[in-house]
Fold Growth arrest and DNA damage-inducible protein GADD45 alpha.
Amino acid sequence: MCNMTFEDPCGENATERMDSVEQALEEVLTAALPQGCITVGVYEAAKSLNVDPDNVVLCVLATDEEDVKDVALQIHFTLIQAFCCENDINILRVNNMRRLAEILEGVKPGGESMDLHCVLVTNPQSSTWKDPALSKLNRFCRDSRGLDQWVPVINLPER
């Protein structure tokens, strides 16, 4: 799959751009985590979207190959995507939940693993968040929508 803008042809520039977007996503998640600006889990995300959708700056939907056959999860994703589109919240799909868990330090206190199928990034309560990596993700999402790719897919590379 090739994601591109009108200025970027497919090929090396597109590959470099995707690497840049993957890195930007990792930077945003890493910066948001210690600020308490991450909501993890399909149910928790739905509650947060219902209470304060204007505070959400990014929605990340994550799957692995076995999740594709989970009809209930796909229905949840469809509803979350529709809500995010209606409320102008950027959405990304991510493959490689193991890498996402590494980025988010994927274990709750007490050793219980987290539901990483849906991750919301919100603004810190004190201010509007201005982050170059978040701006890059927003631009990528906007460019993808211009190409009729409403929910772009990012493959997080292994480390």
About this structure: The chain has five helices and five strands.
